[in-house]
Specification:
The protein is mainly alpha-helical and 252 residues long. Helices cover 84% and strands 0% of the residues. It has seven helices and no strands. The chain is elongated, with a radius of gyration of 27 Å.
Amino acid sequence: MAPSGGGRDSGGVTEADGTAEHGAAEQSAAISTRLNWLRAGVLGANDGIISTAGLVVGVAGATTSRTAILAAGVAGLLAGALSMAAGEYVSVSSQRDSEKAALDVERRELEESPEAELEELTGLLVGRGLSEPVAREAAEQLTERDALRAHARVELGINPDELANPWHAAAASLVAFTVGALLPLLAIVLPGASQRVPVTVVAVLLSLTLCGVLSARLGGAPAARAILRNVAGGALAMAVTYAVGTWLGAAT
C-alpha cells in the first residue's frame, strides 16, 4: 500500500494546503486593513492641515491679534475634528450595518438550502480559475470548516471577524485631523506678527509635500502628481482666504 503522504486525499488537496491558504488570506486581509487605516490617517491629517491653514491665514489677513487668530484656529480645529469623527462614525456604521445584513442573509440561505449554497460556492471558485473537481473539493472542505466564513470571504468579500468598527474610524479621523490641524495653528501663533503668514505658508507646504509622498506610496501612484495636487490645493486655499481676510480687514 502506498503511503498516505501526510493526509493527502484523492483530490490532491491537503489539510496543510488549506490551512496555509487560510492563513495567507487572513494575513492579506490584515495587511489590507492596516493600509486602509493608514491611508485614512494620512488623508485626515491632510484635511486638517489645509482647512486649518486656510482659516488661520484668512484671519491673519484681517487682523494681527494673536488672540483672535488662536481663537479662530482652535474653533476650526475642534469643529473640523468633530465633524470628521461624526462623518466617519455615520459612514462606517452604515457600512457595518450593510455587512451584518448581508451575513444574516447568507446565514439564512445556508440553513435553508445548504446544497444550493455549496453549488454556488463551487461556481464562484471555478470563476476564480479552479477546475471543477478541485473547486468542488475546496468548496466542500471550506463548507465543512466554516460555511458562513467561506461564503462571506468568497461571495461577499467580507471577513466576519473584522467588520468595520465605527468607533475606531471616528477616533482615527479625530486624531488624524487634530494632528494635521495643530501644525498650521502653531505656525501662525508662535512667530511674530510680521512672520506669521510666511512661516505658516512654508510649514504647510512642506507638510503637504510629505502627505503627498505618503499617500502616493500607500496607493502605489507617482509621487510627483500627488505632491502637486496637495501643494497646489493648499496654496490656493491659503491664497484665497488670505486675500478675502485682507479685504475684509481693510473694509472694516
